[in-house]
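Researcher: Please translate sequence to structure tokens.
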Amino acid sequence: MKRAMCFDPGVTTGYSVVELGDDWATVIDAGEFNEFHLVRSLVDKYQPDYLLYESFHLVSTAIDKTPIEVIGAIKALIGADYPLIAVPPASRKFAVVRYGKPMFKDISSVHGKAATHHLVAWLYHKHAYRNFRVNLQ
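Model: Translation complete:
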């Protein structure tokens, strides 16, 4: 079974892991952490076929550079082992509008939810997935 994983970088970095069936996707893990070395251990644990991260866009002059540092850490820790796919920050809004907040209610972590939103939007638009469920292990 294929898996997709997404990181939502920041002071606290969110992550989400999805198992992919033929026409459905199930969120099996989502959470957050603030220690860079956990990036590699999570990737090694789940061995995703697709590895995404929320890209960074400058939106004001008073910025928090932490997401940039986390993206750099993700790239350094993962190296060439996995092709990384950048998703735009706005993609998370699509998932909430399309599927509603109740679908994500079992994910307690704010940043884990954000990473899940990015995965859902990417799978919907790039791979035509329409059926999603949350079944945290």
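Researcher: Any highlights?
Model: The chain is about 35% helix and 30% strand.
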